[in-house]
Amino acid sequence: MSILQRNDYCWLDSDNATLQAHGGGVLIHEGQYYWYGENRDGPIYAEQDGRKRADNVGVSCYRSSDLLTWDNLGVVLPAVDDPDHDLHIRKVIERPKVIYNSSTGKFVMWLHVDSADYAFARAGVAISDHPTGPFRYLYSLRPNGFMSRDQTVFVDDGGTAYHIGASDENQTAMVSQLTDDYLNISGKFRKIFEGRCMEAFAFTRHEGRFWMIASGCTGWDPNAARSAVADDMMGPWEELGNPCVGEHADITFGGQSTFILPPGPANQQHIAMFDIWRPTDLRTSGYVWLPIQWEGGRMALRWQTTWSS
User: What is the distance between the terminal CA atoms of the chain, rounded to a whole angstrom?
Assistant: First the structure.
């Protein structure tokens, strides 16, 4: 049983270094957990308006067998110095998620790539032969010709994969079915939550239904989480309100959703993963992982500093 007792803190890896997996997600493969996320440990600089930003480092990967000790496998998709490249150090590299295609044997990463002003609004795709990388960047696209900002990918029980992204200036979410190799958009899509202004999507499957946790769009500031359920990824989706319960539920305990970890070798419960963003020093942003409780057809999340998976 793993004891998770570091909620709200900047977690450390097995080398006692700051764990850089922000905005990330976890892949379970052959009994191991691979946590991919934004490496925010780059040089910090100030823009003309006084905001602090940091150069991109790329996407990091960590591996664990118990969800407690995380070994740093390094930057598996690095940022580059070429200002014309999607992954330039001064552009946006966010929300990396990796899925495994059992037919091709490839590991496919989707991520949000953008210009500094967020006008580029595209989804990037990278591929690797191994969960440990390195990943080779392929290209970026606007799914079905529409904007894509905050994003995630999800594979259902039958192996069909979906890309879900914030579109239409974040006013709408769009679900796009991926091609069989998970490398492109199939052309089948549907806009959901129109006019609801959501980001930070996280999905799972439980008792035959699809479940979602998301965030409102308030920049770095936390807000009340959203939740929803559907019988089909394409919808229709029924909103269920804020799944958080108790003190500070109205600000999601200070966090923002990023991923739902399904049950695996070291966890018997679904785990909702959140980031505690610290915009003045993003490298020290913390993490909150909480077990999902299923109550009366809804998800419930209660604050726990220490709990066992």
Answer: 6
Instruction: Select from 289, 256, 255, 287 the least CA-distant residue to 272.
Output: 289
**Entry pTM:** 0.96
Question: Both tokens of residue 175?
Answer: 């679900």
Q: Strands of 32-39's sheet, edge to edge?
A: 22-29, 32-39, 58-64, 71-78
Residue 207 to residues 24, 175, 204, 258, 270, Cα–Cα distance (Å): 25, 21, 10, 22, 12
Question: Secondary structure of 76-94 in the HEC alphabet?
Answer: EEECECCCCCCCECCCEEE
* Residue 169 structure tokens: 């200036």
User: Residue 209 is encoded by which pair of tokens?
Assistant: 């239904």
Residue 62: CB atoms within 10 A of its CB come to: 23
d(CA 137, CA 101): 17
A 10 A CB-CB count for 304 gives 15
Structure confidence by residue, pLDDT tens digits, 187-208: 999 999 999 999 999 999 999 9
Closest by alpha carbon to 222, among 199, 246, 202, 241? Answer: 199
Q: What is the pLDDT of residues 83-93, one digit of tens each?
A: 999 999 999 99
